[in-house]
Target: Glutathione S-transferase family protein
Amino acid sequence: MSTDTGARSAENDFKRDTNYIETRITADGRDGYPVEANRYRLVVARACPWANRTVIVRRLLGLEDAISMGMCGPTHDERSWSFDLDPGGVDPVLKIPRLQDAFLARFPDYDRGITVPAIVDVGTGQVVTNDFPQMTLDFSTEWTEFHRDGAPDLYPAALRSEIDEVNDVVFRDVNNGVYRCGFAGSQEAYDKAYDRLFARLDELTDRLAKQRYLVGDSITEADVRLFTTLIRFDAVYHNHFKTNRNKLSEMPVLWNYTRDLFQTPGFGDTIDFPQIKEHYYVVHTDLNPSQIVPKGPDLSYLLGPHGREALGGRAFGDGTPPPPPPASEAVPASNGANYSPQ
Model:
């Protein structure tokens, strides 16, 4: 139900539950859910890195007018994410207080994690899918009818095999790797996860020292997936998950890569640092029993110069930057680009 849905193996390794609802929304509607404007609601939480991917891709492609977005609060209980940010604690479109209600509307005996992101069919109130890796790819490939003018190609056909390869190792060793460190059940499991994480970050450093983006000369799905972990690294993972060989700000290539993306429209303007920190430090009571949320670090220097322009590349390829987010979806300046604990 949360960003850490999973269990520990016999070797005390953290094993993520990846049994998601695989129903897809496609242009031909082959799963019974055709692409259709204003039919579906994307439910997210700004705190969650997996949900953050969908918020970014939706922004970059300009799907705001086709797919509405519901926002859960940064914390949840053992039952479900909830709409505690909305008046009365009820989503104004779905008319439910908990995301769990949409899952149970379709699967009355649903017994797995209630996770974000999820897409809900507004008319029936039933969840369609929570398969987050496929969700963003479908935004790029199935929802093209509703892309904005100038939408970038985040999953270009000629680069898909390389993007998939990069995404696979980044998921295994970085996106999920930080969780394997944080929720390791033994010193041996933690050491193994820690070593894999930083070995992969070192490899990514070598790759990104020579090119501005992970695959090709513009932003792709691969950059979106890496960014949502890197942007949480110093704020949460370094301390909370004990991924403390270095802070991201002490790894110049990855730090400047993250700053470059953070300053790119559609990326940094989706980040809410107070919500991110509140989620991890309040929900994970096994790791932080006091539920005290650290005041720092000061992340306002994400706005500093990154120098990545020297590597060339065009952020949006043949496309254009997205316009500012709708006012109803904007992150308060004090929570995002100008975040400082002072």
User: Anything to note?
Assistant: The beta strands are 6-8, 14-16, 40-45, 68-72, 118-121, 126-129. The domain at 6-146 is CATH 3.40.30.10 (Glutaredoxin).
